[in-house]
Amino acid sequence: MSNRRHFFRAAGATFLGAAAVSRAGAALLPEAASQTSPATQVPPSPPNGRPFQPLVTLNGWSLPWRMKDGVKEFHLVAEPVVREIAPGMTARLWGYNGSSPGPTIEAVEGDRVRIFVTNRLPEVTSVHWHGVQVPSGMDGVTGLTQPPIEVGKTFMYEFVLQRPGTHMYHPHADEMVQMAMGMMGLFIIHPRDPRQHRVDRDYGFILNAYDIDPGSATPRVNTMLDFNLWTWNSRAFPGIEPLVARTGERVRLRIGNLTMTNHPIHMHGPHFEVTGTDGGWVPRSARWPEVTTDIGVGQMRCIEFDALAGDWAIHCHKSHHTMNAMGHGVPTMIGVDHRDVADKITRLIPDYMVMGDRGMHDMAQMHMPLPDNTLPMMTGTGPFGPVGMGGMFSVVKVRDDLARGDYRDPGAYRHPAGTLASEYTAELPEPARAAGPAASEQTLKVRKPAGHEGHEGHEGH
Ligand SMILES: [Cu+2]
């Protein structure tokens, strides 16, 4: 995976030209860059305008701009896209400029930005700048503050960025469908003074979710809660790249939530602080140490930590959200020896799959035939075998010897001697147990409801 990171200039970013707009309009419109690779594209230093430290969008990229008479001009194209969710599965989504989520928009406090939005979807759209303080008429709410952007048309939004912060953009037209289809992106306003809120590495991603039937590629847009693909920037583990840092560096993660439920994001290893929300930066005196922070729907949380060497899991703590394409109809089979039954059913239904009788870990290493275009429930392999995770999971990889600005996957962590859990092979004393039969010898006792016996006694006559 390490060789898949490159500057987006070198990655062959293509330009769509302006086929959808008139000849006269084309002269005025900035070209729309497009990117279809799901690999993290580390942005170059800003070529013009106020300096800032670029955000690294996890499995994403940042939108180039052009300066015109002191205004930063961006061009978003809303359009159908094909997104690889993880190797082995692609989804037909809607997004911006070739990808879902769309590219990150980055600008600086005090900048005047002009954002052209061209609609190449089969229906109307609009863009709301979630959390950005704009004049009401630039807020992008279809019907309320503007007419819809009709199919094939281009709208222009223009405003001055009032204060630094971490924001998102998404449609405010047929929202349920358009967000379920993957239309969203990050909008970062860097501080005017680049020494403010300075960190060594600044990562960002959006929590999103899809309901895509195994074997198909288009999300079911009416699903409200029962999604089967829990993703970061429309990628599921092991498709999510690691977050890389050097020991001792100050690292920030900016995490937004545009799913239909909350996600308690938990990081192993270094403790962190919540340093910002979409409302702004948290004053130092109001920050507290954390290992898990809940990110509500429509919220943004910035967390910061001092990197400690190791491979540290970072994941949503709702354990169903670290699973891929999970069938919730699967019955719990722990303790049930169903090998005979499963064999018989498999002869009738070749794709039949049951939960393991010893839990589900074995499924992580099973290579059973899957329908085309879906992901195994839990997957991803580490240096010690299957990780047994999918969905909203990645690894913070911190190394002592990493060069500044190197974002490539450094491979597995080499644990210093004496710091690795291992099997105990010497003699074990018999564990002392409380009196009573072992669990395996216990018979199941069914206790009837208290009132039942008395009632039965009456009728027994
Ligand atoms: Cu979650």
UniProtKB/TrEMBL annotation:
Question: Where is the stretch described as Disordered?
Answer: 32-51, 429-461
Which superkingdom is the protein from? Bacteria
Q: Which InterPro entries match?
A: Cu-oxidase-like_N, Cu-oxidase_C, Cu-oxidase_fam, Cu_oxidase_Cu_BS, Cupredoxin, TAT_signal
Instruction: Identify the stretch annotated as signal peptide in this record.
Output: 1-26
Q: Which UniProt keywords apply?
A: Copper, Metal-binding, Oxidoreductase, Signal
- Which Pfam family, any one of them, does this sequence belong to? Cu-oxidase_2
In this protein, which residues make up the domain named Plastocyanin-like?
A: 86-193, 218-330
Compositional bias segments (type: Basic and acidic residues): 450-461
Full protein name: Copper oxidase
Naturally occurring in which organism (per UniProt): Pelomonas caseinilytica
Q: What is the lineage of its organism?
A: Bacteria, Pseudomonadati, Pseudomonadota, Betaproteobacteria, Burkholderiales
